[in-house]
Amino acid sequence: MFSKSILNWYNENKRDLPWRNKPEAYFVWLSEIMLQQTRVAQGLPYYLRFVEEFPTVHDLAEASQEKVLKLWQGLGYYSRARNLHDTAKVVSVNFGGIFPNNYKDLKKLKGVGDYTASAIASIVYHEPVAVVDGNVYRVLSRFFGVETPINSTEGVKQFKALATKMLAEKSPGLYNQAIMEFGALHCKPKNPQCVTCPVQSNCIAFQQNKAGELPVKLKKQKVRERFFNFLVFQDVKGQMLLQKRVEKDIWQHLYQFPLIESKHNLTLAEIKKTALLDNEKKVLQSIKRWNENPIKHVLSHQKIWAIFWCVEVKKLPENIQNTQQIVNKQELVKFAVPVLMEKFINSKNG
DNA sequence: AAAACGGGGAA
DNA sequence: TTCCCAGTTTT
User: Of residues A8 and A253, which shows the higher confidence score?
Assistant: First the structure.
């Protein structure tokens, strides 16, 4: 009944979009390529300019690449435009302007993957193949309460199978467009309209109030690179300066040597120029770099390059910040420190 | 299996 | 800011 409800919703609520009037392969193909990872509102003006400029696939095939790219300018993912143009030439010249009429052959075209081949095959040729785009992932994961990450190998397989199972075989093209439209307009990523949802009563996410947590998506967490320059102060009595990390960051509440973070690891000259205060310079006896090459320290989401600078001073500063304290080097072991610090300390003692 | 590829709109 | 959009191709 899910599919029937979605189809009914579609009949009542669908947008009037130009490629929907009377599905022809060329227009459906063009719109699908343009709407890959692109909102309808953003792609629509481009679509209108393209069909105006290139009414048939032959017109597109015969255009220069410069002209195609110029018309594509601002839409992003520019390899789409090149693939579009290449495919237009193939269809125009090799296929006499006729697009392949089935999923398998459509998928061979440049820029046509699983989604686009399914969309064209179902919408134009009524082949019962299910589309799985961002909308379908969202709607199905919520309705069935599926928590498999949509960008995992397992998730891709599972959702394609589920979408295929739900496909309304009598009208696959309409159904595919319906579930996507429903996802785009009603079962939205943020603030889905559950209160007026036609399939509310059978929706797992609604029943368990977890629409906001679905679909599950693996974070692609980019690894941030950071450059740490530790200043290991030590006076003639073996006293050292330690400070607590209080900022909202890694290693919160752990202790460390005074740290200068920079865009790149600093040189000795830069340390002297920027890192040392005037009164520290006055009591400075020697400063030398402990590790020749920066130590790489990898966290789940960060890569840290660290250099320890051993700074010998006659005496440590009198007035220190309230996050800092002066400790004897024998006492260091009492403080919680990051592993990166611990390794340095152990190597000095051992 | 993961990265690269764009730009804009919404919260 | 972060997320995500009618994904595909390359590494």
Answer: A8
